[in-house]
Write a structure and sequence with these properties.
Layout (H helix, E strand, L loop, with lengths): L19 E3 L5 E3 L5 H8 L3 H11 L2 H5 L5 H7 L4 H36 L16 E5 L4 H12 L4 E5 L6 H10 L4 H5 L3 E5 L3 H5 L6 E6 L2 E4 L3
Parallel strand pairs: 3-4, 4-5
Antiparallel strand pairs: 1-2, 3-6, 6-7
Helix pairs in contact: 1-2, 2-4, 4-5
């Protein structure tokens, strides 16, 4: 005799719920996005300056420099020298705070390694950091200055291309001196200073500043 087995499939409908955070009282509350005032406070600017930053992101600057931080965006698009100086100082303070946090964590990591694995040296994975990087920058560009400082700190072989230098060697030298380029590094060819003369357009990068490595016939952006 044949037996018929019925298999019942039970399905549960799970509806999308807002991201939840559990507090100390074991209850849940929805995680709310930061208000414009809170966002502005994080960067040390006014709510009006935050709104201007949001507006600039919708304009040419948002296309030329996507992902640019608020302070650099406002500084680059500043309309007066005092405004530029104001945002430059805010950016310097913010980067100093970020660097101190990263260094503090690195010190904690090193101490933890010595505590957990005394006598062993941490394995450092070889990276392609020995390849030369082409950095395309222009004058009066806080974002360019920030990226330059990062790459100089990494001690990578660097070819700097100054856009708009118009073949003026003295202009490039002044720019290099202003930005603390080590003359010894230049003489040893660890750093080269160059007139762009259209090279940036050939890479197709589409934004300034940008750091690129050439792999074969293709340019690839370096993310420090």
């Amino acid at each position: 005799m044949k037996r018929t087995f019925l298999v019942l499939l039970f399905t549960a409908t799970v509806q999308a719920q807002p991201l939840q955070v559990q507090n100390s009282q074991n209850t849940t509350t929805a995680l709310q996005p930061l208000t414009p005032q809170q966002q502005a406070m994080l960067w040390g600017i006014t709510p009006q300056e935050w709104q201007r930053y949001l507006a600039l992101k919708q304009q040419e600057r948002g296309i030329w420099s996507p992902g640019l931080d608020p302070l650099t965006t406002l500084g680059v698009e500043a309309e007066t020298d005092p405004q530029r100086q104001h945002f430059a100082e805010l950016l310097v303070r913010k980067e100093s705070q970020r660097l101190e946090k990263e260094l503090a964590f690195q010190r904690a990591y090193d101490a933890a390694w010595q505590r957990l694995y005394p006598g062993l040296t941490p394995l450092k994975t070889p990276a392609a950091s020995t390849s030369r990087v082409s950095l395309f920058v222009k004058e009066n560009c806080p974002a360019c200055d920030s990226l330059l400082r990062t790459l100089l700190a990494q001690k990578r072989p660097l070819d700097i291309w100054l856009i708009g230098s118009q073949g003026d060697d003295s202009r490039v030298r002044r720019w290099a001196q202003t930005h603390g380029i080590d003359a010894k590094q230049v003489s040893e060819r660890n750093i080269t200073l160059n007139h762009d003369a259209g090279r940036w357009l050939q890479t197709g990068a589409g934004k300034i500043p940008v750091a690129l490595e050439k792999r074969g016939e293709q340019w690839r952006e370096v993310l420090p």
